[in-house]
Amino acid sequence: MMAAAAAADAGEKVILLEKNEKLGKKLFITGKGRCNVTNACDREAFFENVLSNPKFLYSAYSALDSKALMDFIESNKTPLKIERGNRVFPVSDHSFDIIDAFKRALKDRGVEVRLNTEVAGILTIENKVRGVRLSSGEILDADRIIVATGGKSYPTTGSTGDGYRFATETGHKVNELKPALVPFECREEWVKALQGLSLKNVKCSLYNAEKCLYTEQGEMLFTHFGVSGPLILSASSVYAGIKEIQNPYFLIDLKPALTDEEFDKRLIREFETGNRKELKNILNEIYPLKLTTVICEIAGIDQYKRCNEISAKERKALLAATKRMKIMISGTRDFNEAIITHGGVSVKDVNPKTMESKLVSGLYFAGEVLDVDAFTGGFNLQIAFSTGYLAGKS
To answer: What's the CATH number for 183-333?
Structure first.
């Protein structure tokens, strides 16, 4: 939609071909239906949050940064607000208002929108674009084409990887595709016992072959298969970039505000105060109820043991289970649950100043189909809008 609007602004006759029955189907479900449309951070912070090929995006972000995007949306009658972490949402908290803003922009610019129209392939002659072939068999002539088909994540919204096929068929390299911003599956059985438990202000560190690749503090969630939540989703994007996965695991610090020594002193105080009480009753004051049994299991201590019977060695085991809870990773969930796709059309085949293919004249790529991705927080949508805008403008 952004690419079509920008191309129309450049004075072109633009047709937007949409496979789905409506525009913005994937946009509709982003941000749990609220649509975290961008992040209002500065340029430096934006690029700190881009994981794959940030330098490739310099020109695109200069052409349309977060402020310019926000101005565009608000000029199309959808007011925005900035929340925690500079995340930007529509004031209404409804993603369809963002979609409506783009629909207005397309209508005002005279863009022809064809819904329920699937593209079967891109037609070229001597490395130049000449049009597209639709699934119906119809041929549409065009001297320029922008592929803005999204990735492979949430295929029910129509992003079934068509753009990667178009890229491959026209001679472009597509780097390995992996689910990103996706929950993890874990090996520990006790994780399942914590299903539904959400933890705030914990510190999560991702390790691969004993090397720490990611550490951040925030929220996480236990599920029936493993772990999820904002912290974990961000870690998954780092995980997707690992070339050789070797014995990956998480270390969770449940009490990051306390040093080992401070937490140990707290345990000693609690045990002295309730010396005749059972361990589980004391720990219920420190952890959520569901977690108490699991902490005791990890530490190898009977939860019904009285506090005055807990040895120094057992206390140290409780400390380790709290400050360095180890969760072994068996993998991630698949594309059906991934927010974005890691990998895509190689940026080496695309001109960063225009988004035009270096191999096929008149062919452009924008958004998630490219091998660029970022952390959660509105950054991936900003990438889509910036690259779409630059492709359209070019």
So the answer is: 1.10.8.50
